Amino acid sequence: MPTPFPFATRLPPWLAHTLRAQRGPVPWNAVLRGALAAAPLLVSVLADRPTAGVPAALGAMLAGINDRPGGRRASVARLGLPALAGSAGLLLGTLIAQAVGGGRSLVVLPIVFGVLGLVAGAISSTGTVASACGTQVLVTVVIGAGMPLPEPGPLRALLFLAGAGWLLLLRLVLPSPGGLRSGPYRLDGEREAVAAVYEAVSALLGAAGGPGARAGRSALSAALDQAQDALSGPRIRRYASSAAERRLHARYAAAFPLAEAATALAWAGNPLPARIVEGPRRLAEAVRAGGPCGPLSAPARTDAGLRALDEALLRAAAVFDSPAGTPPGGRGVRSGVSVLGRAWSAAGREYGLRVAVCCATSTLVAQLLHHEHWYWLPATTVFLVKPDLGPLASRVVCRAVGTVAGAALFGAVAALVSGPLPLVAAVALCGALLPVATRHFAVQTVVVTVLVLSLVLLGREPPASWGRVVESLLACGTVLLVGHLPLPGRRGHTVRAALDTAVRAAHRYLGHVLDAPEDHARRGALRRDAYRSLAVARTAIDLSAAELPSVSRHSAGSDSVAGALEQLIDTTTACAVQLDRPAAGLPPAHAELLAAHVSELDRAWAAPAGRTARS
After folding, report:
1. Terminal Cα-to-Cα distance of the chain (whole angstroms)
2. According to the model, what pLDDT value does residue 161 have?
3. What is the pLDDT of residue 339?
4. Which of 298, 224, 296 is nearest to 255 (CA)?
5. What is the pLDDT of residue 337?
């Protein structure tokens, strides 16, 4: 979770965000992979072909940035698809350079990169993996067009793919240090993600009736999202490939009723006995151990929420004691909108247009400067324009500070040592530091700057530490200017689109609970979709709120919509638990609350809509 320094609360939001960093244990397995990712570069240097190792090291570096905790199978798409996109971009960039005669053109290159930026930027707005693919395509196209390597384009692309593939192979083959010891090690990330769901259920039950209930519910939603992604990507597959995997799928599905009951109990706001939290905690331990859960303490069945919790625990115990799990029956919820439809939405067009202007402008400036390393400016601009890395002002400040620090550090090291092997060692060290450095953009910039400058020397280009600083500062100025230009159309489309998706998901969930509460599989899928869409909207709102006032004002009032939406979804979950007793029906108090929350959401939704339309 992002953690600011204590004094950051007194700073403006856009400046306070620069001091926030992710906390958590050091991912030693990723650190080891990052260090070993330099092996292809070392082989090329020992073979006296250092330039051949540069594309491979670039592929490994970009794959290392995408190397996040999670299941091994999910990492295939998370690392592999962007690597394929980057390889294609490197080949395309080489062909473009040949077509324009050595990568120099004041007209063709800005237009081509602008068009590519429009398409890649629009596609990047559709999801995390798509964002990584779009970024790698743009970065590698620029590098392919501007980096003077002796290898032909197809070989560069294959070397890039080999470097990224080597890191992916390490991700799939190496066991996790200190990981789980029971069951197939290939499922250790998945099992830990499912165990975290039961831990989050236990924590939410313990926080019921206290000030931490809301944070506990958000943590449970995040844990369910991470487990869903770790098991098999955006949607749980209908069939699993092994008995161990089927058991894990079944144990994940058994957490849904527990999560629903825990949410309803937290919504009620009554403190619960301490012994209630032990049941889900034992289930988490059983997931990690890969065995049965043993006896579980049953809660007193004094109200609908506790009855639902008791029944969920009984069903979970039966699933955990079964020698062979059964795969879940639900396949998740489809949004009904294709990737191309989302890319061509208002939010996709807005982001794509800004990426296009940034790419075209930075390429034109770089061509006018006639700099030896002209490709640095547009490549840096592509990274800076990514909203995944934080608010615009925050990432510009972090990039500027990080680049200066990284160039100074590399200059000091280069003055003390010489030769290719120390440069390979620097690349290996940077690769090892990258998984930790990604927790703060400025630190990540320091590491990437040292790594890139090392590759420049290995590529037999002239050293240019301070040229890197100048290019990065120009990129910062370009992105900051374009990010605040009043381009055609309205601002705030990203927040508006995320809220619109979340509102539709909430209404689908509410309608299903009122019309067909007995369909538990569909109800669980709709509940997950509603909470996940809410989390995405919250992230977009927080990102917009930390922008400069000229940008953040376009999404003013969105937080009230998210708050009303959260109350509606929580109340709908509580009503679903009540409706599990068909004879009782929905209590009048719950019906009144539902009506009140729907009205409050409509009022909150109308207010920012009017402000955005007028801006």
Report:
1. 33
2. 95
3. 67
4. 224
5. 56
Q: What is the 3-state secondary structure (H, E, C) of 205-263?
A: HHHCCCCCHHHHHHHHHHHHHHHHHHHHCCCCCCCCCCHHHHHHHHHHHHHHHHHHHHH
- pLDDT, tens digit (0-9, with 9 covering 90-100), for 482-496: 877 766 545 567 788
Between the alpha carbon of residue 344 and those of residues 54, 116, 459, the distances in Å are 36, 15, 39
pLDDT of residue 516: 86
Q: Which of 27, 29, 11 is nearest to 19 (CA)?
A: 11
Question: Within 13 Å and on the Cβ side, how many CA atoms surround 469?
Answer: 12
Distances (CA, A) of 587 to 221, 268, 522: 26, 14, 23
The values of phi and psi at residue 21, to 5°, are -140, 150
The count of other CB atoms within 10 Å of the CB of residue 520 is 16
Task: Give the residue carrying structure tokens 């770790």.
Answer: 230
Q: Which residue do the tokens 């303490």 mark?
A: 297
Q: For residue 464, what pLDDT is reported?
A: 67
pLDDT at residue number 111: 92
Phi–psi pair at 125, nearest 5 degrees: -75, -5
- Cα–Cα distances in angstroms (integers) from residue 538 to residues 3, 96, 232, 496, 499, in the given order: 17, 41, 24, 11, 8
What is the predicted pLDDT for the residue at 39? 93
pLDDT score recorded for residue 613: 39
- Structure token digits, residue 605: 């939704």
Query: Among candidates 578, 581, 575, which has minimal Cα distance to 596?
Result: 575
Helix (H, G, I), strand (E, B) or coil at 22: strand
Largest separation between any pair of C-alpha atoms in the chain:
81
Residue in 570, 565, 545, 567 with CA at minimum distance from that of residue 16: 545
Task: Measure the CA–CA gap between 612 and 554, rounded to whole angstroms.
Answer: 6
> 445 has which bridge partners?
none
Instruction: Give the three-state DSSP class for 2.
Output: strand
Low-confidence stretches of the chain (pLDDT beneath 50): 1, 7, 178-181, 233-238, 327-331, 336, 489, 609-615
How confident is the model at residue 121, as a pLDDT?
86
User: How far is 299 from 572, CA to CA, in rounded Å?
Assistant: 23
DSSP 176: P
pLDDT digits (tens, 9 = 90+) for 64-93: 888 877 777 778 888 999 999 999 999 999
- DSSP helix/strand/coil, 523: helix
The answer to whether 513 and 245 are in contact (CB under 8 A) is no
Query: Whole-prediction pTM value?
Result: 0.81
